[in-house]
Design brief:
Strand content: 15-25%
Low-confidence stretches: none
Largest sheet: 4 strands, antiparallel
Shape: extended
Strand order of the largest sheet: 1-2-3-4
Mean pLDDT: 85
Number of helices: 4
Radius of gyration: 21 Å
Helix content: 25-40%
Length: 140
């Protein structure tokens, strides 16, 4: 391999690390998915309609708060593992000034408390949905 080609590869290959494929949720195998049937209409009991701007704000904040694919450190306690799970957090949203939406994550009651009560692990995000960005984060 010529030195020029080797130099070119050494300079361009690190750039490949800048292109991240978005993580997609795991899907059930085709046979399992084929057995699932959707109801004709969504059940009225427990049904919620979440406005698009709130759903977008929650998604942006959650992707920062608990990014997909992040794993707990080696030797993590069961509570630490629990705190890495998105489903361990309840979400509260509220409108703010000038198109900002506040998104607050708090540990769900009864979650992650095998080793005793969990210190406040939540955060509050100020999200500008129109600009698809997080304006500020407030941590305890």
């Amino acid at each position: 391999m010529s030195r020029r080609l080797l130099l070119c590869l050494c300079l361009t290959l690190p750039a490949c690390g800048l292109f991240h494929r978005p993580l997609k949720p795991e899907r059930a195998p085709a046979d399992e998915a084929a057995r699932f049937t959707f109801p004709i209409d969504l059940p009225a009991d427990g049904r919620m309609r979440i406005p698009a701007d709130l759903a977008a704000a929650i998604s942006l904040a959650m992707d920062d708060f608990r990014p997909r694919g992040v794993k707990p450190h080696r030797g993590a306690t069961p509570d630490e593992v629990c705190l890495y799970q998105r489903e361990s957090f309840d979400v509260t949203v509220a409108p703010g000034p000038e198109g900002v939406i506040f998104v607050r994550f708090t540990v769900k009651d009864g979650a992650c408390d095998k080793d005793g009560p969990v210190a406040d692990m939540g955060s509050t995000y100020a999200v500008e949905v129109a600009k698809h960005r997080i304006l500020a984060i407030q941590r305890p």
